[in-house]
Amino acid sequence: MTTQMERYLIEIGKARLLSREEELDLAIEFRDRGDARAAHTLVTANLRFVVKVALGYRSYGVPVADLVQEGNIGLMKAVQRFDPRLGIRLISYASWWIRAYMQNYILRSWSLVRIGTTQAQRKLFFSLARTKREVGETGDDDWVQRVAQRLGVRSQDVMDMDRRMDGRDRSLDAPFGEDGKPLLDFLPGALSPQDEALSEAERARAMTVQVEDAVAGLDPRERFIVEKRLMAERPATFSELGEHFGFSRERARQLEIRAREKLSRRIRRHGGRGRSGWC
């Protein structure tokens, strides 16, 4: 069965490569007149190069299809900014954009912890694995010094980057253990057991009923103060309550204290406990 990537390769393989003269004419047409068809032709004629670059980054464990997608964005950005007066082929200019978009995607996908945040770190990230193979690892720290000398960085930088690359994030869906169950199955749950959750829900419902009964036993002014001061998302001030009833803020404060005491007595009489902060 033909995979989606194979179908994509067949499709882009149908695009005709452009001569230098054709490329120049299309680039001028797009720059001067904004001809979208000219830009489309420039992009499609170079899609095979994007795939070639993406295959060079396979060792980083990122799906090639994702790299191709990112590289295509870089290619389109290059077409948008390409100046035909430079006297070079489009792909020579676009290769930087294509690699930059792919490398940014790899760095974003590598870990939730940001890695390669400076230009020097980015260069080390993408050069480390290849340079390690070239100098050969001996099982001790000699390879670190050889890599550092080859890349012109500190030995500590090499060790730090190597450790961060080895500590890549692991998917919770990845198989774990002999039976191949996903790692997620071995993590402790954050929720309470069902019996405890049900018991807690029953206690909460009972408390709600007790509070509603207690509030219903207050006089209208006390009930209004409780609703506005203790149950509202934005509690009213004593000044606002005093203005509403036409008395002082001190009188409003005294009524709230009295209402709290009544609520506390009524809830205790029903065998419950007052809610923290207002009973």
Task: Give descriptors for this structure.
279 residues; Four Helix Bundle (Hemerythrin (Met), subunit A); 1% strand; elongated; disordered C terminus
Itemize the secondary structure elements and their pairings.
Layout: H1 4-12, H2 20-33, H3 36-44, H4 47-55, H5 64-81, H6 90-110, H7 119-135, H8 142-151, H9 155-166, E1 175-176, E2 181-182, H10 194-216, H11 220-229, H12 238-245, H13 249-269
Antiparallel strand pairs: 1-2
Helix pairs in contact: 2-3, 4-5, 4-6, 5-6, 7-8, 7-9, 8-9, 10-13, 11-13, 12-13
Please describe what this structure looks like.
- The chain is mainly alpha-helical.
- It contains 13 helices and 2 strands; from the N terminus they run H-H-H-H-H-H-H-H-H-E-E-H-H-H-H.
- The chain has 3 domains: 110 residues, Up-down Bundle (Four Helix Bundle (Hemerythrin (Met), subunit A)); 56 residues; 76 residues, Arc Repressor Mutant, subunit A.
- It has a two-stranded antiparallel sheet.
- Helix 2 packs antiparallel against helix 3, helix 5 crosses helix 6 and helix 7 crosses helix 9.
- The longest helix has 23 residues.
- The chain is elongated and about 90 Å long.
- The C terminus is likely disordered.
